[in-house]
């Protein structure tokens, strides 16, 4: 099938490439020439496992090309996926849907009768119905649908090729059938197809993210209780998660969630619920947000205690800058926010990350950066473990001991092996973990 994908950010680019890979003819559209030019030459602006190979292959197949022109898009196909950003409104909490509105307004006079415009962007419930009215005012014989995206960064290609579910909110049987046909290879591989009204489909997306964020904040709230009670949140999470009704995933305690989705999506959801007069029903999401942000201040407070009450003149080595392991994305990164707060309090902070240094440097030029862990920790009075990259679990505490000034580490991700560090003479402190062998500090 012929289609266009408008917006070549994370979701759009991966979607365009994967659609071309399963045999569709795709034009990826973006008004940003600086984005389209490298893509046309097969250079991807984002790093995702498998994406570069797929981009090269689909460009070579002739089934994928890129354009900066919506008119070109409208001439090429009658099916258009809209994948533009819906960030947090500047100075507010609601989602800023102006880019989505602009695509509809710009495309409406160009589309042929019978066109289908499918939103993949995460939008407040009710947006698709509103956009439908807006589209029909100009293009009465065209329609909208919504098909939310659930991909995770770091797994974008595999999540898109082998999704667990396809959710479609359509206003007509015809639109539903078009989407079934588009996703047929995924449905054959076992993805479940949910066809529903647009409002329900929009809510599936935000409810999923709200649930996952709540699960993380729940375990982090338990970590705070553990700190007060002298209990161990890591064992608690393990035992609680063993109940198959609860499960282990998204029950990893620590510094909490960041990234481009969870924080802004739960705020936008709470704001939309208030507009709908049901703010009370999901008021708990405000607390989910607060608990999450509190882990950052708890980490700074504990770090300050560990260096004797003041950061002035202290050297702090930071392990991790990305918002999560497996990603070079630093948007709303808890790690960089903690590093920056400590720097503002007078510490000299040197940050290591296996992938995200370039992005970190652009966003936080005031911090220092190091290409390897020993360099980041040279002369450190304290080492902070802030992003749970697997390689940090393999650090030799013995070897690192030779470069630091003081053998103190704060594991704000609760993934390091406390015994190994302690037996190498380190004081390992962690969020939600009690003193073990007399060496854990408490918040
Ligand atoms: C998320 C959703 O998972 C995805 O379905 C949606 O489409 C976009 O938002 P992503 O932002 O890529 O994806 O990251 P995810 O892997 O979900 O992690 C989100 C944050 O939660 C990260 O900062 C991560 O470190 C944190 N996290 C995750 C925890 O703190 N504990 C956990 O147990 C799991």
Automatic annotation (TrEMBL):
Entry keyword set: NAD, Oxidoreductase
EC number of the protein: 1.1.1.22
Any GO molecular function: oxidoreductase activity
EC top class named in words: oxidoreductase
Reactions accelerated catalytically: UDP-alpha-D-glucose + 2 NAD(+) + H2O = UDP-alpha-D-glucuronate + 2 NADH + 3 H(+)
Location of the UDP-glucose/GDP-mannose dehydrogenase C-terminal domain: 317-418
Pathway terms, separated by semicolons: Nucleotide-sugar biosynthesis; UDP-alpha-D-glucuronate biosynthesis; UDP-alpha-D-glucuronate from UDP-alpha-D-glucose: step 1/1
Domain of life of the organism encoding this protein: Bacteria
UniProt cross-references to SUPFAM superfamilies, sorted A to Z: 6-phosphogluconate dehydrogenase C-terminal domain-like, NAD(P)-binding Rossmann-fold domains, UDP-glucose/GDP-mannose dehydrogenase C-terminal domain
Family the UniProt entry places it in: Belongs to the UDP-glucose/GDP-mannose dehydrogenase family.
Name the record gives this protein: UDP-glucose 6-dehydrogenase
Organism encoding this protein: Streptomyces ossamyceticus
Lineage start: Bacteria, Bacillati, Actinomycetota, Actinomycetes, Kitasatosporales
